[in-house]
Amino acid sequence: MPGRVRKRSPLKLPERPYIALGLEGSANKLGAGIIRHDKDGSTTVMSNVRHTYITPPGEGFLPRDTAQHHRDWALTVINDALKKAAVSLHEIDCICYTKGPGMGAPLVSVALVARTLSLLYKKPLVGVNHCVGHIEMGRQITGAQNPVVLYVSGGNTQVIAYSQQCYRIFGETLDIAVGNCLDRFARVIDLSNDPSPGYNIEQEAKKGKRLLPLPYATKGMDVSLSGILTSTEAYTTDKRFRPNGDGEDIITPQDLCFSLQETVFAMLVEITERAMAHIGSKEVLIVGGVGCNERLQEMMGIMAKERGGQVFATDERFCIDNGIMIAQAGLLSFRMGFQTPLSKSTCTQRFRTDEVHVAWRA
Amino acid sequence: MESATSRLLASAIQVSQGAEAKVFKAYLHPCEFASSSTSPSDASDGRTPILLKYRFHKHYRHPTLDTTLTKARVAGEARAIIKCLRHGVNVPGIRMVDTAQGVLGLEWIDGKSIRLLLGGGAEGEDETTEEETEDDSHEIEEEDPFDEYGISEDDAMRMIGTEIAKMHRADIVHGDLTTSNMILRHPSSAKGLQLVLIDFGLAYTSTLAEDKAVDLYVLERAFASTHPASELLVASVLKAYQEHMGKEWLPVSKRLDDVRLRGRKRSMVG
């Protein structure tokens, strides 16, 4: 922030290296990651393993099946993470798990694994807010100091900025999340869910040429996306719609992907710009699964450049849900003395970003 | 080809820049090409300044999308202002509209924003520097900035309430009621002392008590975040608002209580 003296961080340098295991399973990705904070203040990602539950084209993931997937894979993924990091569970300082927000059943199954490990190895538990995990990992990887954060994923769409030990939400979606909007449209036009529907939309959009009129619904710093999804779907019953694309004056699935992306991303960039103007920040950090989208990164880059700032983004390893981000955010609060006692180690589907006390920042 | 609007912009001096638009001060009838202006002729002597709100091209947006949006927003803002004018709300008069270029020309208002008069500092430095503003306000309190306008702070708050009530009775919701968007017109100007509402960029028409209540709630929050210990000020705004809303006050008041409890946004699953 210009003209402001940076306050000293309340986080002391660790007196010895700390190692944390992070377990994430709030949606269809099961992740385990191990992170180390060294005495000199540096951070090392020791391992970052993920397994994704992929459904057939045209189908979404249901809570029960997703939870079953997580239960089936939990041991494999955790063992894999430990092996890659070459540490044993005895050497770990704390076990971090996602407390929320997310889908109930998958969250519960991963929390159960975390509790069991905690009891078996007598390690403290740290419950982590998923959104804060994304933000902290993004800051760690990109080195952004005090950015405006655009958090875009399958379940969340928020514009966030830090203020007085709290990540305040400046703008957000009023209905569905942007990832949800893109994924559901991918299912309408039968795109594959492998590696992710959003990735396939992005590839299709590159082939689209025609920008079709769609609603543009920004309300101050908030956006509304459900109507856009409906309108885009409506085009697939239009007389001009040709799934295979030949002839004059036609609408192809590629055009629809292109139009959908251009419209919703323009809305997201606009609300981010509003937040930047409001608080006078010049840095933007994009986190969350949709943050991998290169078109979104490009548009955000143009906006940031026009304002004399810069954009920070990460690749799929850290954008898409992963265990390492839970470990990072959990270890930061653990080093500030925070622990979740076993009796409080619950999960919650509703856990807003601004409910977390960010003790480790000035 | 250079249009009259671009020539006007080129001669203008930039005053400020927001997220969406740049604001300029310009003269509609500069001596050099007094006859070439496309806008309806102004009765003034030609040296009256006007304010230009220029929604510049956003390069990140698809050009087609950008043009459609800019056109719709300039026209929408102009419509909301015209509607206010028809219902006698104090708003800046419209001097020119160029939707293709994204320029809205408005009456220049001599005066200061309520935010400045209350000592809330300049726009863009609230939230993060709340503590610092608190320190500043002690110095400013030494002399009352409202003296220059011949009214008390409380009078100004009552004027705000009255103006918002007039606007809401016309079923216009401002959408961004902050103290920076209210200007106290200087008593020495031709129209005398007035409280003028500005920036209708987010305004829309609605008859719902809910929307009006949210509008008031946004104002309450704006007061709380920029002007510490402003509860009494807000109370006088609301009192004047109540007096001028008549029987429409009751439903809005009930809604406002609800909105205060839940906040503007509901708690969400994500």
Overall mean pLDDT score of chain A? 93
Distance between the ends of chain B: 50 Å
Largest sheet of chain B: 5 strands, antiparallel
Question: If helices are DSSP runs of H or I spanning 4 or more residues, what is the number of helices of chain B?
Answer: 8
**How many runs of DSSP E, i.e. beta strands of chain B?**
10
Q: For this structure, what is the CATH class of the largest domain in chain B? A: Mainly Alpha
> How many alpha or pi helices of chain A?
10
Walk me through what this model shows.
- The complex is a heterodimer of chains A (362) and B (270).
- Chain A has 362 residues and is α/β, with parallel strands linked by helices.
- Chain A contains ten helices and twelve strands.
- In chain A, strands 3-2-1-4-5 form a five-stranded mixed beta sheet, with helices on both faces. Chain A has a five-stranded mixed beta sheet with strand order 8-7-6-11-12, sandwiched between helices.
- In chain A, a hairpin with a 5-residue loop joins strand 2 and strand 3 (43-52).
- Chain A starts with 17 loop residues before the first strand and ends in a 27-residue tail after the last helix.
- The mean pLDDT of chain A is 93.
- With 270 residues, chain B is α+β, with helices and mostly antiparallel strands.
- Chain B has two domains: 6-107, Phosphorylase Kinase, domain 1 (2-Layer Sandwich), CATH 3.30.200.20; 111-132 and 147-269, Orthogonal Bundle (Transferase(Phosphotransferase), domain 1).
- Chain B contains eight helices and ten strands.
- Chain B has helices spanning 4-11, 63-86, 114-117, 130-140, 153-169, 209-226, 231-245, 249-262; strands spanning 13-17, 22-27, 49-54, 94-98, 103-107, 111-113, 172-173, 182-185, 194-197, 204-205.
- In chain B, the strands form three sheets. Chain B has a five-stranded antiparallel beta sheet, sandwiched between helices. Chain B has a three-stranded antiparallel beta sheet with strand order 6-8-9. Chain B has a two-stranded antiparallel ribbon with strand order 7-10.
- In chain B, helix 5 crosses helix 7 and helix 6 packs across helix 8.
- The termini of chain B are far apart.
- Mean pLDDT of chain B is 83; it is low at 32-44, 124-141 and 266-270.
- The A-B interface holds A 1, 4, 101-102, 155-156, 163, 168-169, 172, 174, 177, 211, 213, 216, 219-220, 222, 262-263, 266, 269-270, 273-274, 276-280, 299-300, 302-303, 306, 349-350, 352 and B 18-20, 58-62, 64-65, 68-69, 124-125, 127-129, 175-176, 202, 265, 267-270.
